[in-house]
Amino acid sequence: TGHSNVAVGKSAMGANTTGLYNSAVGESSLLANTSGQYNVAMGRLTLQANTTGASNTALGSIALYGNTTGN
Question: Strand 23-25 vs strand 40-42: parallel, antiparallel, or unpaired?
Fold first, then answer.
């Protein structure tokens, strides 16, 4: 299972299973993330569609919203 993650906000990192070292602050930030790691999402809906992408930084409402697997 995932560890060393921080999620603050409604549904933040809601689907995370094996993702590591992620930070999600804001409603639905990193919502779809399952195994992505080393991501930083700050703001409402940031990196919302990310599933396995790694080492992404998204700051501001809806930043990198459609990113799914990009690194």
Answer: parallel
